[in-house]
Amino acid sequence: MPTTTTNTDDEIDDASPGWDSISARLAQLYPGQEPKHFGTIIKYMLGGPDPLDGISAWRRTDPVSHWHFVTYGFSELYAKESDDPEVSGCGFELTFRLAIAPGSTEAADADAEPPVWALNFLQNLARYVFQSGNVFRDGDWMTANGPIALGQATQICSMGFATDPELAEPLATPNGSVAFLQVVGLTLDEERAAKRWRTRNLLDALLPHMPLWITDLGRASLLAHPAVKQQVDEGLRRDGSSSGFLFTDVLGLQQSKRLLRKPLTQVTLGARQVDELVALLPLRLPFGRTLRVAGHEWQLLLEPAGTDGQNAVEWQSEGEGGVVLRLTDATVQQFAQTLQPREGSYVLPLLPGVEWRVEKTTIKDSTGKVVDVIG
After folding, report:
1. Which residues make Cβ contacts (< 8 Å) with residue 259, sequence separation at least 6?
2. All domains in the chain, ordered by first residue
3. Which residues, 6 or more positions from 282, have their beta carbon under 8 angstroms from its beta carbon?
4. Mean pLDDT by 10-residue block, N- to C-terminus, for the chain (375 residues)?
5. Residue 243: predicted pLDDT
6. Helix/strand/coil (H, E, C) string of the chain?
7. CA 357 – CA 338 distance, rounded (Å)
8. What is d(CA 259, CA 191) in angstroms, rounded to the nearest whole number?
9. Is 39 in contact with 54 (CB distance < 8 Å)?
10. How far is residue 180's CA from residue 96's CA, in Å, rounded to a whole number?
11. Residues 300/247, Cβ–Cβ less than 8 Å
């Protein structure tokens, strides 16, 4: 990640009621402590590369030593510009708690600066929001497509979002309401559990072992704790999954005519997405919920037919670009037992009119070099 912020005492605009409200709220949490503040050199609205006008970081010693970062820029810091009088800008600011490694130079030096990668990390999240128009909410998850701190050995490659436990009450500003949404670092298997269950439920299960949801780059997966694993397993059996959407780069749909038989629907998927689909389908359809698989050109909507219904294949009208599959609970179970994340062709005995074609998934790094092949 490029360096996108600099430590500065640049003058804040005189008329900054949103900014002042955020600072006043943090002053209540950290009375008498001046944060380390990092502001942008050129504002985003003037062509600068950094969407956030500033990031502040407070140093904490409890419950463990960590930096508490708070952003300035997702909400309306200056004049009111959005049409919604009740909400300021995106309606939130991000916070991030990063553990300070015991025995490190940073831990020994009370005047140490917070790591630059964390500032860049938050600016990159802001860049995603401002460029895509997608906003974060309590209970969301997101993959980082690699370690959140480049160049460091860490298993933290994903993140969840939850209301900051010490800033739970939404902030009322002259420009509208602002929530403080905390970014929580997750391992890949914790991300998988979040997708299969519910992100917020998983974060609540992690909290006793992850005080204040402080992100520790050196930690291993907390699913290794029997109590956490038991909570997740019981939650999946009880609640199913809240993830109803799966995007894939590889999704092909084709219909082939057959002599004296109904046409054959052929579904092509990448091995990586098959693994996720096999995990999610039994946690959606038997609970009466749909699962949508979306590609660049096609969409596959999987709907429950229940225990007494019948399997059905329905091609949507031209222009909608998709197929609807209604599956019985027994077919869902057979699907999970039959389809494998390995290259090949699969046909379920209970769904003979659909052929599932699985292709290998090639994983490349930012330079285009192949780093892994699935399937």
Report:
1. none
2. 6-239 (no CATH), 245-363 (3.30.1360.230)
3. 332, 333, 336
4. 42 76 97 92 68 95 96 95 94 97 81 91 94 92 86 91 97 97 96 92 96 97 96 94 85 87 90 87 94 88 88 75 90 93 93 92 66 72
5. 86
6. CCCCCEECCCCCCCCCHHHHHHHHHHHHHCCCCCCEEEECCCCHHHCCCCCCCEEEEEEECCCCCEEEEEEECCCCCCCCCCCCCCEEEEEEEEEEEEECCCCCHHHHCCCCCCCHHHHHHHHHHHHHHHHHCCCCCCCCEEECCCCCCCCCCCCEEEEEEEECCCCCCCEEECCEEEEEEEEEEEEHHHHHHHHHCCHHHHHHHHHHHCHHHCECCCCCCHHHCHHHHHHHHHHHHHHCCCCCEEECCCEEEEEEEECCEEEEEEEEEEHHHHHHHHHHHHHCHHHCCCEEEECCCCEEEEEEEECCCCCEEEECCCCCCEEEEEEEHHHHHHHHHHCCCCCEEEEECCEEEEEEEEECEEEECCCCCEEEEEC
7. 12
8. 46
9. yes
10. 10
11. no
Query: Would you state the structure tokens that stand for residue 255, as one six-digit string?
Result: 């219909």
State which amino acid sits at residue 112. A
Residue keyed to tokens 């330079």: 367
All residues at 6 or more sequence positions from 188 whose CB lies less than 8 Å from its CB, including other chains: 155, 157, 158
CA 374 – CA 111 distance, rounded (Å): 46
Rounded CA gap, 4 and 122, in Å? 10
Angstrom CA distances, 198 to 96, 140, 177, 231, stand at 21, 9, 26, 12
CA 359 to chain CA centroid, nearest Å: 26
